[in-house]
Amino acid sequence: MDQKKVNIIENAIKLFAQKGFSSTSVQEIVNASQISKGGFYLHFNSKDELLHELFEYYWLRMQTRINEVSSKPLDPKEKFTDQLKVTIEEIATHRDFIIMQVREQAIPFNDTIEHLIRRMRYHSILFYRNHLLGIYGLEIEPYVWEASVMVQGILKSYMDLIIVDNVEFDYCLLAQSITNKIDSLIEGYKQQNDPPVITEKIVQQLTPSSYDFNHIEELIDQLEVISTSEPEPDIKETVEVLLQELKTSSPRKVIITGMAHHLEKHERYGDLASLLRAYFM
């Protein structure tokens, strides 16, 4: 992203956290960013568009750092713990962003922003689901969606202490503690045989209407569309390698994650790259 846009976004989020989205004017954002109004509108058509790009900016920052961990030679549980630590660090670092969301419960979101938030929520649940399956195996599949939501709840409880109450934690220790608690959570599901409330049918309600990637076949369909319509040779070649690998009986994670890394360099395919990584941690 253009550094001038980043500067505007980072100044805007501080103002939104202090005053609220609705109470912050474009002029105040311009003053804090030390640019002209013309400079603002050169990058954003409106304050609503700025808000959308703000969400995209922080979401992509988080995904980039988490994806960096994906390439490390760690076992599934170590990788998950490391990614939890990165998640905690990013949220704590961008405290203003979280405060803005807490402060502005009634932000006048348009359809574009609502869709983005649904994407982010769905990606998060999918991220946890696939990590839990990677760690504990297919035997937890009947309750894996519910466990994914519970894990996010545990993380949120700690993040509230960090964001709202300024409690200081050792992030490595906290990430490891959460992982240990997940062991107990999964064991509880196994022993009690408690029917899950949150099923795949419930999760479908969280899935953005523009895509539904609950099955590898649907990822393949999406890639095939890109393969036939994409004019850029570099992207086309990357997609064809992905298709060839996904159609094998045992797709190799290293190939999938490597190609996803190439794909995410192109902003319009960031979602698809993140979903590929989520399936092949």
Task: Give a verbal description of the structure.
This protein has 281 residues and is mostly helical. The chain has 14 helices and no strands. α1 (3-19) crosses α2, α1 (3-19) crosses α4 and α5 crosses α9. The radius of gyration is 20 Å and the shape is globular. The chain starts with a helix and ends with a helix. The mean pLDDT is 83.
Summarize the SSE layout with pairings.
Blueprint: H1 3-19, H2 26-33, H3 37-43, H4 47-70, H5 76-93, H6 95-103, H7 111-136, H8 144-163, H9 171-192, H10 200-204, H11 216-229, H12 233-246, H13 253-263, H14 270-279
Helix pairs in contact: 1-2, 1-4, 1-6, 4-5, 4-7, 5-9, 7-8, 7-14, 8-9, 11-12, 12-13, 13-14
Brief digest:
The chain is mainly α. It has helices at about 5-20, 25-35, 35-45, 45-70, 75-95, 95-105, 110-135, 145-165, 170-190, 200-205, 215-230, 235-245, 255-265, 270-280.
What fraction, in percent, of the residue positions are helical? Answer: over 70%
Name the quaternary structure: single chain
Contiguous helical run count: 14
- Mean pLDDT value: 83
Order of helices and strands: HHHHHHHHHHHHHH
Separation of the first and last Cα atoms: 26 Å
Q: Please state the CA-atom Rg, rounded to the nearest Å.
A: 20 Å
The residue ranges in which pLDDT falls below 50 over 5 or more consecutive positions are none
User: What is the structural class?
Assistant: mainly alpha
Strand content: under 5%
Tally of extended strands? 0
Q: What is the overall shape?
A: globular
Main beta sheet, described?
Answer: none
